[in-house]
Amino acid sequence: TVFRRFGNRTGLMLALLDHTETELQSAFLTGPPPMGPDAPPLDRLIAYGRARLAMTSAHLDILLEAESSDDVMSHPVWMVSARHVQLLLRQLGLGPRVDVAAVAVQAPLLATSVAHMQNVIGLDITTIGDQWEDLVRRLVD
């Protein structure tokens, strides 16, 4: 019965985060700068990435459960985020097809990546965020 309502394990886990995800999406869709539409695209992308990383860190256990499914990148939450990142990368001049770049930019923000960087490599969230931002800035330069 639970899966009828949520579709699958990923849907169930992400439904637990619905309020947090709604706030994040609202911030990048209609919110004020630096994440909202009135800010320059690089500022928006960096603010979005740092907010996504903070959310991932705060809800790491639930997101790890959600990402254990094979279809996490087909989930509407991922797809909305991917479209947002693609839009910003196109605005930053990376060309009309930025599918791979968008996945590459988002991959370090996934729970499995964050857990690996924290637990295996030994990085803290601040370092992960700083290195992610450096990666993004180098990509768009």
Q: Can you walk me through this structure?
A:
With 141 residues, the chain is an all-alpha fold. Helix content is 73%, strand content 0%.
Features:
single chain, 141 residues, mainly alpha, 73% helix, 0% strand, globular
Q: What is the terminal-to-terminal distance?
A: 50 Å
**Coarse morphology:** globular
- Tally of alpha and pi helices: 9
Beta-strand percentage? under 5%
- Rg is 15 Å
Question: What structural class is derived from the secondary structure elements?
Answer: mainly alpha
Summarize model confidence as the mean pLDDT: 88
Which residue ranges are poorly predicted, with pLDDT under 50 across at least 5 consecutive positions?
A: none
Helical percent range? over 70%
Secondary structure topology:
Blueprint: H1 2-6, H2 9-16, H3 18-30, H4 41-58, H5 60-67, H6 76-91, H7 99-106, H8 111-121, H9 125-140
